[in-house]
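Dear colleagues,

As part of the handover before I leave the project, I'm documenting each prediction I ran so the next person doesn't have to rerun anything. This entry is a single chain, and its sequence is reproduced below.
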Amino acid sequence: MTDIPGPGRRTFVAGGVATALSLGPAALHPPAAAAASPDLVLDLPAPTGPHAVGAEVRHLVDRTRNDPWAPEIGVRELIVTVLRPARPSGRHPRMPQLTPEAAVWFGRLAHLIHHPYLPAAGVDWAATLTHARTGAAPLPGRRPTLLYSPGGGDSRTTGSVLATELASHGWTVVLVDHPGDAGQVEFPDVRPGRPDRVRITALRPDMDAATFRTLIGTRVADLRFVLDALRLENVGLYGHSAGGTAVAQALHEDRRVAAAANLEGYLDGLDGELLPVARQRPGRPLLLAGTDGFRDARFDRSWSALLAHGGPAARRELAHANHWAFTDYAALAPQLHRAGLMTAGQRTGMVGTVHPRAAARLVRSFFARHLPV
C-alpha cells in the first residue's frame, strides 16, 4: 500500500493532469460531456443538535487585493456558505454537498490532486445531500460565529458534516473557499479575467517554500476579509491541514479571533522555518488536534515549539484515525469501502477506523468551553 500524500509531502496535482489544468477546465472536456451518473449515492450523517440548519451561499469580492493565483482577475473573490440554526421546515430543499457542475470537476480531479484513494469512477458525487436546508428562516437572536478553512486542495464543501453539526448546536458557521487553492470553486457567473464559472486549482507538484507562504498568507487574508465583509467580532476559527495552519496564524494576527482549532496543520513552512504563531505564547485559546495515523516529526517539532511557550494552548490526538478524519471523508470512506470502491487499507490510510463523529465531538467541546452558545 502506498502512503497517502499529506500536507507538505503531497503532490497537489499529479502526473500529466498538471498540463491540462494549466489550460483551464476546457482542457479536461466541458462538464456537458460528462457520462451518465453512476449508481452509488453517498450519505452524510444527520446532525445531533436540537436545531434545524439553514444554509445560504454568498459571493464576496475584495477589491483591495488581487488574486495571487490569477492576477488577470484584478480582485480577490471568495465563495462562502453560511449555516445558521433555523426554524424547522420540510418545505425547503436540502443543500447538495456539490452542485452538478462542481461535482463533475470533483469527480475528475479529486483522485488526481491529493486523494489517490478515491475512486476515479462509480460514484454520483452530485447526489450527496447535506442536512442544511436552503431558504430556511434563521432563528432570531445573535449567536457566536465560527469560520472554517478547508485543507489545501479541498473545497469548503468537504467540511459540511462538522459545520452542520456545529450549527445544529447553536453556532453560526461560515465555510470559506479559497479559489485557486481549492480543487474546484463554482461562482454564480463569469467575469473579466475569469471566463469560466468553475475555477480549478492552480497549485502544482513543484510547490516551493515561497508558494506555500503565499498559500497560507492568502488564506489568512481571506479569513480576515470575511470578518470585515460580514462585520464579525469575537469569532472562532477552525481549519483542516493548510486551513489549520491558516487559522492558527490568523489567531496570532487578528484580535477579533477569540479561539481557534488547528485540525492537523503544520506550524512551519516547507523550509522548516517556524511560523510567527509558533514563536511566541498564544494569547487566546488554541487547540492543536491531530491523529495517531498521521503524526510525524514535523508536527512534533512545530507544535512543541508553540506549546513550549505556555499559555492557553492544548494538544489532542484522535486514536485509530488518519488525516482526513476531520472532514466529510470520515463518513464517506467507510461507505466507499463497503461498496468495494476502496480497500480496507485505503480507508485506514485516509481516515482510519475512528468513529465518524469523533472529530465533531472534539471540536464542539472546544468551542463550547471557549465560545459558548
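The chain has one domain: 40-370. Confidence is low (pLDDT under 50) at residues 1-35.

All the best with the project,
I.
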